[in-house]
Hints:
The structure holds two protein chains of two kinds.
Chain A: H1 9-12, H2 15-40, E1 42-46, H3 48-53, E2 62-68, E3 74-75, E4 81-87, E5 93-99, E6 111-118, E7 124-131, H4 140-158
Parallel strand pairs in A: 1-2, 5-7
Antiparallel strand pairs in A: 2-4, 2-6, 3-4, 4-5, 6-7
Chain B: H1 2-30, H2 34-37, H3 39-62, H4 69-74, H5 81-87, H6 92-113, H7 119-143, H8 167-195, H9 201-232, H10 243-268, H11 272-295, H12 303-306, H13 308-332, H14 347-377, E1 382-384, H15 386-406, H16 417-441, H17 446-461, H18 476-501, E2 503-509, E3 514-517, E4 520-531, E5 535-546, E6 552-554, E7 557-562, E8 565-570, E9 572-576, E10 579-588, E11 594-602, H19 606-633
Antiparallel strand pairs in B: 2-11, 3-4, 4-5, 5-6, 5-7, 7-8, 9-10, 10-11
Helix pairs in contact in B: 1-3, 1-7, 3-5, 3-6, 6-7, 6-8, 7-8, 7-13, 8-9, 8-11, 9-10, 9-19, 10-11, 10-14, 11-13, 14-15, 15-17, 16-17, 17-18, 18-19
Amino acid sequence: MSEVGGTSGLKAKHQRLVLVTLALVALIGAGLLAAWGLRNQVDYFYLPDEFVAAPPPVGQAIRLGGMVAEGSIETLGDGITVAFVVTDQKEARVPVMYTGILPDLFVENSGVVAEGAVDAKGVFIAENLLAKHDENYVPKELEEMSQHQAAKAAQETTIGLE
Amino acid sequence: MLAELGLAALWLAAALAALQLVGGALAQREGSGELAALVRPAAIIQGVLAGFAFLMLLWVFAVTDLSVKLVATNSHSMKPLIFKLSGAWGNHEGSMLLWVTVMAMAGGLIALIEKRLPEKTMQATLASQGFVALGFYAFLLLSSNPFERLPMPAIEGQGLNPLLQDIGLAFHPPTLYFGYVGLSVAFSFAVGALLTRQVTPEFARVMRPWVLGAWVFLTLGITAGSYWAYYELGWGGWWFWDPVENASLMPWLAATALLHSASVLAARDALRTWTIMLGVVAFSMSMLGTFLVRSGILTSVHAFAVDPERGTFILILLALYVGGALAVFALRAGHITEGTRFKAWSREGALVFNNVMLSAILGIVLLGTLYPLLTEAFDVRVSVGPPYFNPVGAIFTIPMLLVMGVGPLLRWRGDTWERLKTPVLAIGALIVAVGALVLIFGDVTVLPLLGLAVAAGLAIAAFLPLRGRNLRRVPIATWGMVVAHFGIAVSLFGMASETAFNVEKLAAVAPGGTEQVSDWTVTLESVDPIAGPNWTALEAKLLISRGSGEPELVTPQNRNFWAPPQQTTESALLTRWDGQLYAVVGDQAEDGRWQIRLWWKPFVTFIWYGGILIALGGVLAIIGRVRSDLRRRKGEEAEIDEPEWEQA
């Protein structure tokens, strides 16, 4: 067993340095791993129009946020699967299927964020639905949606003016 | 009137915090001046005043004084008293006041009783404490006044979020705050020691009970929060890697590293700089945690837009504390002489390894938590969840847990492989054997498989430090370590077991219908409307029996609160020694059937039993440390030269 930094006079001073170096190596390793994980293992957020324009690959976990289209909620025969359409209140419409107990405030014309992946038929299979919890709590993406769209609209109208 | 008294007390307390800061700072320059003598009394009175202000807030909430804005927006005359009181801290302003109150009282306590450190170090410590508190007072008084009056008293309060009307959650945030505050005290000690160049084993001993206390509260807070999310949200999960959860996990990770490195410093006078650094990091994480949650920056970046004043204030405070501490660290760390050296294969070596692993995990959680904020700046919205945290975290957690099993068996300074060969190989064999058994008999993914195997090895390894010792002579602090490490194994087992073996059943059931989940039979008797003090609900009556056993009645509900109007899902749990049956009732389909969701979660309760054991271990360690410190002070030094660490 060698002492960290050694016991000889030459190296004796450097135990601290060796420790710092090892810690840095470990932390940089953690940072690189984290960077890899963050590139590959995060769920991207899609709005209905983005989803329609450039659908994510089949099976890739994403989050889809939008409004539940009016008159689209339909309970299937098994009594636990619900089909509905998420829309951006314009033309983009994404069919969604969810098997499970609906969140407390899941209603038509209300915001929803669905976590899941699109299947081969282009239906979004939700594993989890986040709806408004109460009037104070709105999923982050929904709260931003209106502002985001406004910003986008502004961007589009100013293209070419700069 | 009472609200104004509270506000006045707050202003006075702020003035005393300023006095504490100035007095403590001047004491460093001119020796003990007249102001320096005022530092301790100022800290004590500041604690009393802040406590008084918080009592006043509790009072206006207890009597539902609707002329106070905070009461009008967060309370309701119809609420049960306990939730009226918990409403006092279940909001931004009140929780900030609670933070500063606990902090001021902790500062008062150390000013009153702590006499072990040189007086200058104590004054620097209290100055730092005053500095941190001053920021909070400024925040409260300038932009988050909890005692603000309405021009016209409200007729009725707007109520408290019914999700928060839960006894567990009423005490969950304060528990975490106690943890954060304990870390702020540790931080102040670190700053004090750094400024006065007193990074000594004595400093570590003085700081240690505060770190341990903070760690116990954080452990309990995280455990309670996890259980709350588990039964209240009705999703059946116990950890979601939600930013709010991460905000409490990060200080815990830093505190865990800190309490171990403080032990090395106390016992062996090594890891001086590292301990100070961790003291700064742990407090920074708790500040980051508080503010991430309280500012709403993580639930929505637009919290800044909603209340720019508050958001800016928060950022300034964070920058001041963390930046200030890092600046002091950068200026003074060079003056800390290197501590005692040690070999890699030693108790210190194992503790250093795990400190580094904990820091790596902390970094991973921190990056994952803040990453969505970063991408937001580029208008890309992502969410980071289990697919990131679980595998990336596990890469560092598993080696850490393995070393945790071996570390306590090692001697200080240096040890030989020969001495440890037998226990290490035995634990290794046990881990491999359990892993192989699970692999053969179960269909389990890699992480729960590793979790089960490592948990089995750790459960045995945790008790090995007691091997061959007279149990009655084992110091209490060593028992604390054994219990806490065993708690980690228990908790890990619960997590792995739940992940690997949980069975779910989702069905639409007509009244009278029956469903099967694992070896449980569940019959839906009926669904009836019922009423509570401030809610109505649809309550399902489920008769549940295991095998051919006696049926038992459980009643999951769908509650409707009316102030504010909101629905919540109340899950029903049936607890057995080997797991929990978890039932949720959903909506009624058009054909009259009810959605029922059932889980059988084997050994899920061990997650929280483990958490309680970990906290219990921390309590034992505090008792043991404080007792041996007291004895040490009586001059029995020769006898008590760190006996808790020496192996028989």
